[in-house]
Specification:
The structure is a homotetramer.
Chain A (H helix, E strand, L loop, with lengths): L6 H16 L4 H24 L2 H32 L3 H5 L2 H8 L2 H8 L16 H5 L3 H43 L9 H12 L12 H17 L1 H19 L28
Helix pairs in contact in A: 1-2, 1-3, 2-3, 8-9, 8-10, 8-11
Chain lengths: ~280, ~280, ~280, ~280
């Protein structure tokens, strides 16, 4: 960027790093990817183990050392990514760029605020890199079908969740009025709404349960509502996935133009024409 | 309505109010809609916060003032709606008309009966106005598909719920006979039915659990029944939604203009005309 | 049956009773049906209320009187059914015949064994008569679609349940070995299997929960298994219902023989021919 | 194998044993299969009962005797299988071969390590033999549809589970940071992840529940997420089963004999031949 004469070697070095870090076609690139994945998994395991009192007390120093090594590796990796890519700012503001940065910060944050270290599990999000690291062809295609199905149904799901919101609001308030005085669990409307969500989603912790007869009756109605209403998101996504599967499989016949062929079809099922033409 | 001479200006004033309150094409109408939504949300938040002991004690006066302001605004709005619409009675007896009235009453009811204020959360139902306020084109279409699917399956779902009712009645009584004497939880058949619903819907609070071996065995059967039987409403709604989706995809017939054709239809099912023309 | 001369009037009386009890075309038949339904509902409510201690103590005599009236009515009805029908034995051994008998017995059983009265809730099964009483045309059609779908999938569901059985057997034993010594909840394999069912079906009472780390880990796996595996019965029934819906709607075109027409179709979508010919 | 002259009778004896043990066409073979099934069921029941303290104390000797008889029978059966089959090693390393061996070992293991006996419930896996024993034609076909559907969706389900893993990792860590100090339940990240799985899968034991307001709010979000997200595996399997059902319905091509045609196919997708010939 500064000197003009050694442009080619610099560019070559840059693109070499780019190839190693961003791609996985070369053996160096593959090695880097596997190493990165190991570092991510190790860093997560360390965070998990460190949160357990007994391990924290016994292996405190070991955990600290591993953590710094991992952070150092992540830092180098992040800087190399910024250096080797053509549009560093675009990367830095991209989804993966932000996660990569967030994976480094907590270790340093721990100096400033206590407990900041716990946020290190945001590194878990780095596991999403798996999809990038191994360019998992068929896996990505499968994942895309799921995402497109969800994307296609997001309007319906939003309306569904909005109705659920109104329902738990009304039921929560009703139960507060009914149970509030005799039952410590329903001591405020927000808590009652929390109970309504616990019940409607069929989670059923049992930390708050109705005590009055009318409260139990309404609870029973809420349960049956939740039990039946789960059919709605399921139906939405099922319908969308069936639709998606049909579309993905289909290609138009070059002879008659009709669609809906299976993936393994070699001839059109409508006119018998060769699909591979 | 009374004087005949200033008819035109009155009508114009009326229709101007109508435009602002009932429609959202003008900028004044849009402003009104957003303001209304804010008032609804604020009123709900106040009711939620007021139900929490600590907030109620500290900000009692603030809550009361906001409540009266909101109620006053809702009252004015309700009267203007009655005044500006052509058929006030029809509006007053419509779904939204009753909700709008119910949103005002609780504040006044609080003078008559204590606790009446809590019913104020019926204002939550006013959130349904969102669909009206923003004439959410595609959202409404999506919502309609859900509603039509549910409407189409309501017969099947009613039968399903009727069977569930009979099942929990029988199981509840059976468990009362089995567990009743040794287990305080099953102290009456209604309570046992409540337990059966909690178990069949896979909510599983755990406030009442079987103690005897045979009781546990029957519980296990009920759980597996509930776990399998959830497939029924889900299947009903899924089948209905797929059907609905297929219809929605269809095109209008160029001959009779009717819609609802399957994707593979070549001729109109209403008039027999060629769809490919 | 015995005397031959007064044959006609006897037959007419028999068939008159038959019409009233078994059919609902005449006004007398309708009145009988509604009365029967009321008696069924009243008898169930009495059993429910009587199981509650406070009500039992206060209204003991009232309950007893109502019970005897209802039982007497059911007895008369049962005898009249046997008398008026052409094949009494066939009725007596039919599904409804057995339920009708079981609805009468418990009151008498109460003399012989204590607690026998509680079995009276078998009367709940009489609610199934609703489907007979009101010859609920479209309702029955809808119910038939559900039953046929379930019937069609019963092989798949049986295999699914068999696998579930094996899974909970293995997991229950495994958890008994792991948790048995430290956790009172897992004190025998049958109890551990009960826990496995509670967990796999996502009921989750919480009366028995894992205490060890490895136990929690296995529990988590069981939960995720149960959460994913519920897709199997749901998928089975959904697929079957979609299939069923397609078949029920379809009729073959009299011109081209193709199927898959909608219920409201008047012309074939394949050849445009009139379906009503 | 050793002597050459009595080859035929030996072979005949071998193949006779093979017929009895591996096949079920002869009456001897059928008797053996039913006897085997009885032994499997008896051995499982004994293990279940023995794990219950009271039964263990009372019937200790009986259980021991039955156990040794069953083990002896299983041992003989295993050796005969090895002897009569043509490729003993292939059988020994096959799925059923390993299970058959594992069914024998625990009784002997009990001498070496205490508690080893409990592993005997691995015999439960022998129940899978049911599918072999009765060559359940239509059952196997149904089971194959399920397995093929699951096989077809395994890519999508793997991705789904991977996302669930990342989600519970992040949510578990978040809740540890939020609840950790005030709530004994969230004393480490692994425990918090366990809670996240309990909540997301809607099991909801209630052994660990949020205590803080923000914790309850996040729990509510997790529940709604779990309640909606269950639609994904359900949709995947439903779509796959519908697809499978469609294929199963298809006919064989009269030209090339291949199957798997859609119901509306007019030409073979493999060879382009006319299916209606």
């Amino acid at each position: 960027m500064v000197s003009k004469t050694p442009q080619l070697p610099t560019k070559s070095r840059k693109s070499k790093i780019y190839e190693i870090i961003f791609e996985s076609d070369t053996s160096a690139g593959k090695f880097f990817d596997v190493a990165l994945l190991c570092f991510i998994v190790v860093s997560i395991i360390v965070v998990l183990l460190e949160s357990i009192q007994t391990y924290r007390d016994t292996y405190h120093l070991t955990f600290r050392i591993i953590e710094w090594i991992v952070t150092f590796f992540f830092l180098i990796e992040y800087l190399l990514r910024l250096y080797s890519i053509k549009q560093p700012l675009k990367y830095a503001l991209s989804f993966y760029g932000i996660i990569d940065l967030l994976a480094i910060l907590p270790t340093f944050l721990a100096f400033v605020i206590s407990g900041g270290q716990s946020l290190m599990v945001i590194r878990g999000l780095r596991l999403l890199r798996v999809f990038r690291i191994f360019k998992l062809g068929s896996f990505m295609a499968q994942g895309n079908i799921i995402l497109q199905s969800l994307n296609q149904s997001k309007g319906k799901i939003a309306i569904f969740l909005y109705f659920i919101l109104i329902i738990v609001l009304i039921i929560g308030s009703l139960m507060y009025v009914i149970e509030g005085e005799q039952n410590d669990g329903f001591d405020s409307i927000p808590t009652s709404i929390y109970w309504a969500i616990v019940t409607l989603t069929t989670v059923g912790y049992g930390d708050i349960t109705p005590a009055t007869n009318i409260g139990k009756f309404i609870s029973a109605l809420v349960m049956i509502l939740g039990y039946s209403v789960i059919a709605v998101p399921t139906g939405i996504v099922s319908a969308s996935m069936i639709n998606q599967a049909r579309k993905v499989n289909g290609q138009a016949c070059p002879h008659c133009g009709k669609e809906g062929h299976d993936n393994d079809a070699r001839f059109c099922k409508h006119c018998g024409g060769d699909l591979s033409v």
